[in-house]
Amino acid sequence: xxxxxxxxxxxxxxxxxxxxxxxxxxxxxxxxxxxxxxxxxxxxxxxxxxxxxxxxxxxxxxxxxxxxxxxxxxxxxxxxxxxxxxxxxxxxxxxxxxxxxxxxxxxxxxxxxxxxxxxxxxxxxxxxxxxxxxxxxxxxxxxxxxxxxxxxxxxxxxxxxxxxxxx
Length: 167
Known about the structure:
By secondary structure, the chain is α+β, with helices and mostly antiparallel strands. It is built from 5 helices and 5 strands, in the order E-H-H-E-H-E-E-H-E-H. Helix 4 links the parallel strand 4 and strand 5 (128-130). It starts with a strand and ends in a 20-residue tail after the last helix.
């Protein structure tokens, strides 16, 4: 398994992984999705880290068609954002942490999270934030993040939504 920055050619595999995560929340795909994927990859301060199953590489022909080089088994998005407090040090936001159902329990989520945590500290972030769902079927997420050092002791996480949360 290779932990690396996401590539444009990962698009098809990423769409599949996001669909697995999304439940009843619609994802984006097709040409519109590809345009958004390119925008995310090019966005300043944003990095997408994936765990790629290099043992299942796509054929050269599939790569030429823009399909993924390897199945994407886990993914996380890191945003490092400029800031005026804490002597101007940036802060980081982690979002869309997903491990494919068939690859859970192998430490891939931990590996991609450790990579983005290192990236945030390397960018001189003074803190890293993330939100996780409550009372979900996969209720172990909070414990997973706590095992990585995250705490809910000093902040409340809140959201204001225009679209409903996934179920």
